[in-house]
Amino acid sequence: MNNAKIFGISGWSGSGKTTLIEKLLPLFRARGLVVSLVKHTHHGFDIDKPGKDSWRFREAGAQEVLLAGAQRWALMHELRETPQPALADLLVHLAPCDLVIVEGFKSAELPKIEVHRPALGKPFFHEAFPAVVALASDAPLDTGLPLLDLNDPPAIATWILNHVGLA
């Protein structure tokens, strides 16, 4: 990977992280930026369908299966008994880009926004993770961090680009 700027979006499940990112991506692209994304999940996931050739190859023991087609390619890597890689180890697999948005990885040492909805009844987590540089919420909050309006993605996009030096 090149010298892409890296910025995180973290928050409790159901806080709106994915929805926010989904709204930010076209705004970044409209500014001519090439953007990649890394998403962390605590749950097992599979992008393959049981019975398909690639699934059968993984089930048979292949460590990596690369699918290639006219519109995209995807590399699946089975961890088997190895530990989950750190974010830095994952980032090296990305092609050069201008900006990498990281969803999740709240303890990673990278600047991030905490998405917080008081209606969820969850506590803040930024006090335990000093890399949180701002909050995005749908309600007024009493915090010493910059507070961004979760319902104003263009303003959040501008704030992020200013913060990482891409404005």
From TrEMBL:
Pfam families, per database record: MobB
Domain annotation Molybdopterin-guanine dinucleotide biosynthesis protein B (MobB): ranges: 6-138
Superkingdom of source: Bacteria
SUPFAM superfamilies for this protein: P-loop containing nucleoside triphosphate hydrolases (SSF52540)
Gene3D superfamilies listed in its UniProt record: P-loop containing nucleotide triphosphate hydrolases
Protein's UniProt name: Molybdopterin-guanine dinucleotide biosynthesis protein B
Species, as recorded: Uliginosibacterium paludis
Lineage, uppermost ranks: Bacteria, Pseudomonadati, Pseudomonadota, Betaproteobacteria, Rhodocyclales
